[in-house]
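PROTOCOL LOG
Step 1. Enter all chains and additional molecules of the complex.
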Amino acid sequence: MNELGSLALITLYPVTLFGAAASFLGGRNRRKGLVAAGERSLVVSFLLLTLSVLSLVALFLRDGFSNAYVANHSNIDLPIFYKVTALWAGQEGSLLFWNWLLSLYGIAVLWSNRNRNRDLMPYVTAILLISAFFFTNMNLLAANPFRPLVMDHAGTPIPYAPPDGRGLNPLLQHPAMVVHPPVLYLGFVGFVVPFAFALAALWTRAPGVGWLLATRRWTLFAWLFLSGGILLGARWAYVELGWGGYWAWDPVENASLMPWLTGTALLHSVIIQEKRGMLKVWNAVLVVTTYLLCVFGTFLTRSGIVSSVHAFAQSPVGHYFVAFLALGVAFSFGLIWVRRDYLRSDATLDSILSRESSFFFNNLIFLVACFAVLWGTLFPVLSEAVRGEQISVGPPYFNRINVPIGLFLLFLTGFAPLLAWRRTSWPNLRRSFAWPAALMLAAGIVLFLLAVRARYALICFSLSVFVATTIVMEFHRGGRVRRRQLGESWPRALANLFLRNPRRYGGYVVHFGVVLLFVGFAGSSFNRSRAEELSPGGEMAIGGYTLRVEKLEEGETPNYDFARARVALERGGRPVGVYHPERRFYFASEQPSTEVEIHSTVREDIYLVYASTGEKGGAVIQVYRNPLVLWVWVGGLVFVLGGLICLVPTRREGSPAPKTSESEGGAP
Amino acid sequence: MSILLLLLPVLVVAVLLPPLFRRGPEVGVEREDRIAALRERKRALLAAIRELDFDREMGKLSEADHEAERERMKREAAEILSAIDREEARKHA
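Step 2. Run joint prediction.
Step 3. Record the structure below.
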């Protein structure tokens, strides 16, 4: 299996190069044969990478410890489930998996464009194959997952297969970690599609916004997976890392947030290009920046230049990433510069009080947020380069900068959709905003009277009421129009709003998810925690709850041993549940791990950690009271649901259209 | 296994090389793409007009702004339809 996987990778190397060259030349000289050879190369790349991936998975399942990667990330007693997912547990395997996903996207793009965008496809294929070449290069030269394990025998390296492997990192032995990396990678890698189409359109000076419309769904798809990946990562951090939080502004978390910020900006600004033919340069820059930030984020994770709980070890792959990024930046931005005449706007801004200007403003804020995160993430590296010592800025910096930015974006989430395209008159604005503003004010006053004094939390809750009201009003007004025009019932009118314009109304659902997320984020202003050593019968109180340790137990499984506490939780004298926080020690990797227990309600989470065994032989229980965390997870689900609605194809030609005064008019 | 290892590169070459011997340029690709781009633009424009009408019904924009923008969009749609007709005529010429 080792040889087969390795040979597939080696064969892939010339295939990607050949395919990229054939595609480019075929597109340039309009040679059918070359274009077909390039497209076949993409298919062959996918098959070869599938062979490599399956070979590595087979090695894991067969405990092939003669392979260094398998020996370092698995052991005999590891559950089969985790043996399969150990594929992406380390540097080499995850890069191979990334490359495989890239080729999977390639196949999907090839298939969906077999009869469309034929002028662009040779260049799209070439760019996808160049990306694949870059990752193959790294997999062969710097992070080979098929490297045999060798031991030094009197100066001679000889193949060696240990009786058991070193095991999988305990932190990765969690269901969320099974799903989180593929989902996140699907997001990261997915942005290669709009990137490839944008460069192809620039290169060929493709007419109109065809490329933008062709990639709209791909961009949304990638963004949705990136969002899902970030949320799953937060969930994993919350339930697995045992520090009571879900976001720590860790460099690797930031690495996924940066392309998400620019990708979100892009999703808004492409609408302006579609509708008004404006912001073409801006969109081209955003497409390129988003994909390169995805690669940059991977570079941060892989190269070891910043330290993080999630990062892979120090590795030579950093040089390859730097080279790829430098070439990517130079070529992409160079092309945008050379084609600036092609990117001239078709229209100009009519009014500052319009949907276009508010979207553009939201774009600027997203970019400012991205830059703030980038600056804070790279500050340790920059400070070391300038002053010779690493200075980390930490969560206080990120919160100080990003909390006001986030609140402003929350305001725009409610403000922008109420504006009309081109211009909004003041009377219309007053009519649209009267209710949301009044309810926002009322909510602020009520919360203040209820002794909510945390400034940002108070603003956040009030703004959430404002945005939620604007969303409800949008649905109400839209439904009312359909009822008036078409005589539909309320449920039918609301359902048709989604069906006739899924992007707009799915977008509102996403915005509602954002509101719920922000309510959850604001809850962290009121977090409390305490830790105590408790023996059986010992009690501790926090935020109206009392927890009592009923029993301490120890045990062993083939994979780890554990110390566990049985904790009864009460609120106001009434029992609310029994929980079992646990501390484990994994034999193969010789690493400890905590298994937290969480009592979760709409109001708050009580988060229990078996921190350690105390000096008196009791359990040191760390307990956190985290208000409104459930709102984050529910908000995340609503957010993803909204994104999925946006992906639903619009009902248009061929589907029954509502009766209107003119053929092309009427309700969307 | 060793036979499979030997066969793999041979198989890859056998799959990749035959298209190179195909002759002839891609015919009409550019025009098809141009027509497809125009049709996509037309669809986007019609959707934008529907949304504009809807915004007026919702009370988001004044009658005057609605009329001005609708006229502009209709003009653009008419130009696109003419462009599609021209391209189709050239294609069949």
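Step 4. Note key features.
The mean pLDDT of chain B is 81.
The helical segments of chain B are 2-16, 29-57, 63-92.
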